[in-house]
Amino acid sequence: MKLDSPIFDRIRVKPDRDRRLKAEGPVCEWAGCCNAATHRAPKGRQQEGQFWRYCFDHVREYNQSYNYFAGMKDDAVAAYQKDALTGHRPTWKMGQNGGTKGRRGGAQDHQPEHFADPFGMFGEMGGAHRPDPEPARESRMIRNAERRAFESLGLEFGATTEEIKARFKELVKKYHPDANGGDTSTEDRLRDVIQAYNHLKSTGFC
């Protein structure tokens, strides 16, 4: 084999020149720089999706002086920041697109006849504010615990919320030791009254 053969030169341990393929990449776009462009930098407002190609040193220098809001007025900057909270997508006031008469899917279409809105939370959605109705206790099943609670307060089952609260205050003042000269003989009766009231309150009677 000839020593100057090109085939022999390829398998030589130390060839006469570097025949490895060199990756050719973009060059830094900074004026006067010939380094490889390893980083991208945004071109700025109204040029979204477009980037400069810089080397590490020049992209760092560019980022230090980059200002997306350059040239914008203060009110325009504030409006942009406000829209950024919703991803620059349009928003509407709650209930603005619903609750119109004759249109399906409005707030009124989803409110039953006896719908209660004591805090008026759905008022701006087009629904009429209705006071919290008194529970229909005649059709409600009476449990023994509820019956005993009414009996402890000395009330009938059909008593209203105001009557229950008024009766509770009256009995507490009557049986509390501070109201009868420190007599502790009525403590058991006071405990029954408090338990009865708490039970009625937990079951929605007051």
UniProtKB/TrEMBL annotation:
Assigned keywords, A-Z: Chaperone
Q: Is Chaperone one of the keywords? A: yes
**KW Ribonucleoprotein (keyword) present:** no
Q: Any idea where the J domain is?
A: 148-205
Coiled-coil boundaries: none
Annotated region described as Disordered, given as residue ranges: 88-109
The protein's matches in PANTHER family, at most eight in alphabetical order, are given as: DNAJ HOMOLOG SUBFAMILY A MEMBER 3, MITOCHONDRIAL
The protein depicted here goes by the name: J domain-containing protein
Originating organism:
Ancylobacter oerskovii
